Amino acid sequence: MALVLLGVMAALALPSLSTPARRDGRLDVVLRAARGAAIARAQSLALTVGRDGGWTLRPLSPDDTTVTLRGALDSPPSAPFQLQLTPLGTCIPATPLPGEYGGWDAAACASRRAASSTAGGEA
Predict the structure, then answer these.
(1) Number of C-beta neighbours around residue 13 at 10 A
(2) What is the rounded CA–CA span in Å between residue 56 and residue 89?
(3) DSSP code per residue over 55-109
(4) Coil/strand/helix, residue 54
(5) For residues 107 and 66, what is the distance between their CA atoms, to the nearest angstrom?
(6) Distance from CA of residue 25 to its chain's centroid?
(7) Which residues of 84-99 are buried (b: 16+ CB within 10 A; e: fewer)?
(8) Eight-state DSSP code of residue 45
(9) How far apart are CA 121 and CA 61, in angstroms?
(10) Distance (Å, rounded) from C-alpha 48 to C-alpha 30?
(11) What 3-state DSSP class applies to 19?
């Protein structure tokens, strides 16, 4: 009986221990998930996006080896970059951002170009 209970508990716990791979496609979707993770964990996180569009989200030092989330963007950026996400939900560039992001609004966690096109579409 004890082995059966142990097996059921292990079956329930194992999926939560694995790092899910995500293919969200768009950077705004990834940023929303990353901000939510930083706020929920009350922890500063680093979002690293590679030239191939692959991205990882991990805690800042000293726990920076543990990947919290990972995935790939449908359209990769022109250059790799890294953002630091705070527990308050701000996104601060840790490296220079590629030119296609046209400035950065740390409080909105979005490029100014994307934020202005969203605001213009709602009017």
Answers:
(1) 9
(2) 17
(3) EEEEEPTTSTTS--EEEEESS--SS-EEEEE-TTS-EEESSPPPGGG-SEETTTT
(4) strand
(5) 26
(6) 12
(7) bbbeeebbeeeeebbe
(8) E
(9) 39
(10) 11
(11) coil
Q: Which residues pair with 82 in a beta bridge?
A: 48
Summarised one tens digit per residue, pLDDT across range 19-42 is 444 445 788 889 998 999 889 888
pTM exceeding the 0.90 threshold for the entire prediction: no
Q: In the structure encoding, which two tokens stand for residue 22, read together?
A: 């995500």
C-alpha torsion sign, points 97, 88, 29, 48: positive
Residue bearing tokens 């030239």: 51
Which residue is listed with tokens 């496609």?
25
User: Residue 40 gets which letter from DSSP?
Assistant: H
Q: Model confidence over 40-98: pLDDT tens digits?
A: 888 899 999 999 999 999 998 776 677 878 889 988 999 999 999 999 999 999 999 99
Closest CA to 106 of 31, 29, 27, 26: 31
Contact residues for 5 (Cβ-Cβ < 8 A; gap 6+): none
Residue with tokens 């790092």: 19
Q: Quick one: tokens of 91?
A: 């996104």
